[in-house]
Amino acid sequence: MVLCDKGLFTLHTNNTTYQMKLGACGVLLHTYYGPRVEDCDLSYLIRYADRGFSPTPEEAGRDRTFSLDVVPQEYSACGMGDFRLPSLDLELPNGSRSADLRYKSFRVEKGKYALEGLPAFRGEEGETLIVVLEDAAAGVDVELYYGVLENYDVITRAVRLVNRGGHTVRVRQAASLCLDFQRGDLDLITFDGKHVLERRPNRAPLLPGVRSAGSVRGNSSHQHNPFVILCEHDAGEDHGLCYGAALLYSGNFQAAAERSQFENVRLTLGIHPWHFCWTLAPGESFTAPEAALCCSGQGFAALSHRLHRAIRERLIRDPWAGQPRPVLINNWEATEFSFDAERLARIAESAAAMGMELFVMDDGWFGARNSDEAGLGDWTVNREKLPGGLEALVPRIQALGMKFGLWIEPEMVSEDSELYRAHPDWAFQIPGRGKVRGRQQLALDFSRREVRDHVYGALKKVLSSADVSYVKWDVNRSLAAVWSAALPPERQGEVYHRCVLGLYEMLEQMRRDFPHMLIEGCAGGGGRFDAGMLYYTPQIWCSDNTDAIDRLRIQYGTSFCYPVCTMGAHVSAVPNAQTGRSVPVETRGIAAMHGTFGCELDPSQVTPEEREIIRRQTEFFKERQALIFQGDYYRLSDPFQNGPFTAWEHVSPDRREALVSVVCGPAQGAPPFLALRLKGLDPGLRYQAGGEGSYPGSALMEAGLPLPLPWGDYQARQFYLTAL
User: Fold this and answer.
1) How far apart are CA 692 and CA 708, in angstroms?
2) Contact, 195 vs 524, CB < 8 A?
3) Of all residues in the chain, what percent carry a pLDDT higher than 90?
């Protein structure tokens, strides 16, 4: 709901309120964002005083109490007296770096806005508020877009800059989100890590100054995720005020929070200003990516539930929104590059007997790809490994009752490839400097249309040659030595962003040409796990680390923003390739059910007993996939606390069904008797807990479910609860 009255703009969702107001000197002030309040002008919360070294704008005259350095603003700028985090930084022809924004107009449109060439939440039944600010001296309009997803308690933000002047302006920074709080007592939670250990929650109170997380790697990165939480010091899973902010973007980003000298907090989120400079000629526009905001007054669980539902229903698109996903087996850990059609067919036959529905042929099927040092970019089937091509292999897989999928890495090229020999200038390299390799490969310049057209044309030919139902889109290095031979020196600051736009364009084209194909995102595992990619790829390989115990932590951190149905998770062989740890197959399967479920192993190397366990788990997952994917997800323990177990729970929307999963840690002598307190059940219903008896919902939530004593390291159990 959008309410506009005499310079007061109020956005209501079912449970939250967001408000801004036109203030003195034409400055758009931010008055409130939080749990829903009755309609009123909340600008009474803004107070004024002479703050000494905080300067005042010219329009304020002799009033020394109004300073941009102090008041809460809806969209901040730099160089004109606000010394806090800027959202907008413009370079004018005279060399000055500044922006000075004043209110110009507003309009309300039916339905939620869309962004050309960029991902965005959908909301046909919602509303869009567009508030226009202007920098009169620069001749630039700043259009602030607000989408209201009322039933999801999500408010989206986007920014469009329009050069209405007569001279070229260079955009040095254009954040998607600025949010000012008139309080300083908040914690910031970021989700950080590294390759094979992604998205660990890091929480700390904001101290005076700036705390930031971001990426300059060309991807959103393994190291930091473009989702953060601001919360009260005592906020937890089930209590306390918290705010989530997610950027729908897959490239360089920055999330920054500043606690100012006057105990206020400002949060900005958007494209990282490092190596970003966009030339905006007269009449041209630039659109910053969308950011999504969500607020909960009942802690992190409610925040996650709202974000999960919005992502499932308003970000992921048909045909995969709310639909079951095939259980797959991937041949990489079984074969790596050493395979032929016969070996693949044997793996698929064993996998079909275990109930797998999709066979995925990973790296090594194309060009001269017998190692990671050759072949990338040559997207033609290797006829030595696959003599009949996909035309012969795919029907063999389908005859087993399975679908067929392919691994691809379109954004990269090997120096030992026909593509690189023909077009070395298509790969990133700075003139006069040496090559910067990653995994013995170079990155293609996806900012160039001729590069994208060539790569996509080759891939489309392969994908059209047979019935390919699934593609795993991977990228296995960060970008470095970024310089485009197609752009002049003054426009090199556009390359990173143009690469992201090129990636999105190709993914959108693939969706149009192959509308029923499932695309799974991947970047060395979880190096590009962000809301922007989920608009194109409804699931993302969560991490290259398939160790079940490490995955409990990785998937736990991921769950704060992203729903279970987006997390690629598989059962792998032991000892695990990343950690050397051996974990029972039951535990590996239960951990993989905290995601899309599948296998990364060679069935011929698994005992008959283990194959039967995987078959039963596959059948169980298929039966419960709707509950796991569409139910509310509860974190029942924190795996980073090194407690006796890690536990989580899925509860159906009607609260008549639940699945509880428990994974114990290393065994210990004389273990204690433990009971696990559940969440989300109906206290007035009685639940049958498998063969463990039946209990009132109130007892299970307040007293707990008794856990059996573990016998051995990393034992796991699941409890399926149904209302009687």
Assistant:
1) 10
2) yes
3) 92
* Residue 1 pLDDT level (bands cut at 50, 70, 90): low
> How many residues can be counted in the chain?
724
Alpha helix locations (H) across 403-544?
A: 418-422, 449-464, 495-513, 531-534
Among the options 74, 134, 237, 530, which is catalytic?
A: 530
Q: What's the whole-number mean pLDDT along residues 563-590?
A: 96
* Matching residue, tokens 């030992």: 416
Catalytic residue among 89, 313, 378, 610: 610
**Among the listed residues 106, 107, 105, 86, the one whose alpha carbon sits nearest the alpha carbon of residue 97:** 86
Hey, which residues does 157 pair with through a beta bridge?
A: 146, 291
Quick one: which of 91, 107, 110, 111 has its CA closest to 99?
91
- Ranges of beta strands (E only) in 514-579 are 518-521, 539-541, 567-568, 571-572
Q: CA 544, 545, 549: angle at the middle one, nearest 5?
A: 155
- Residue 14, token pair as written in the block: 């079912």
Residue type present at position 693:
G
Residue 117's SS3 state is coil
pLDDT tens readout for residues 243-270: 999 999 999 999 999 999 999 999 999 9
Q: Is 178 left (phi over 0), alpha (psi -120 to 50) or beta?
A: beta
74 is catalytic: no
530 is catalytic: yes
The confidence score (pLDDT) of residue 4 equals: 67
Residue 220 · residue 530 · CB < 8 Å: yes
| Residue 583, CA distances (Å) to 134, 155, 329 in order | 60, 42, 19
Query: What order of strands is seen across the sheet that includes strand 227-232?
Result: 102-110, 127-135, 140-149, 154-163, 285-296, 242-247, 227-232, 186-194, 197-205
Secondary structure of the chain: what % helix, strand, coil (to 5)? 25, 35, 45
Is there a contact between 569 and 591 (Cβ–Cβ < 8 Å)?
yes
The secondary structure element, H or E, covering residue 591 is: helix 585-592
CA–CA distances in Å: residue 149 to residues 2, 438, 630, 653: 11, 41, 19, 19
Half-sphere exposure of 201 (CA within 13 A, CB side): 23
Structure tokens at 454: 């060539």
Q: Give the span between the Cα atoms of 59 and 74, in whole angstroms.
A: 19
- What is the torsional sign of CA 507, 512, 513, 514? positive
More confident residue, 708 or 637: 637
List beta partners, residue 471: 406, 519
pTM of the model: 0.96
Rounded CA gap, 182 and 95, in Å?
Answer: 34
Ramachandran angles phi, psi of 378, nearest 5°: -100, 85
pLDDT, tens digit (0-9, with 9 covering 90-100), for 11-50: 999 999 999 999 999 999 999 999 999 889 999 999 988 8
CA–CA distances in Å: residue 66 to residues 46, 59, 181, 184, 412 = 11, 10, 17, 20, 53
β-strands 358-361, 403-408 pairing: parallel
Q: Can you read off the two tokens belonging to residue 130?
A: 């567009």
Task: Report the run of H or E that residue 344 belongs to, with start and end.
Answer: helix 341-353
Asked if 164 and 139 count as a contact pair (C-beta separation under 8 A), the reply is: yes
First to last CA, the chain: 40
Q: CA dist 44 to 12, 54, 256, Å? A: 19, 21, 27
List Cβ neighbours of 575 (8 Å cut-off, separation of 6 or more).
581, 582
Q: Do residues 366 and 412 make contact, with C-beta atoms less than 8 angstroms apart?
A: no
What is 386-420 written as a DSSP string? STTHHHHHHHHHHTTT-EEEEEE-TTEE-SBSHHH
Of 713, 697, 30, 31, whose CA–CA distance to 705 is shortest?
Answer: 697
Which tokens belong to 558?
């991921």
Among 191-200, 464-473, 602-611, whose mean pLDDT is lowest?
A: 602-611
d(CA 647, CA 718): 10
521 — phi, psi (to 5°)? -80, 155
Cα-only R_g, the chain: 27
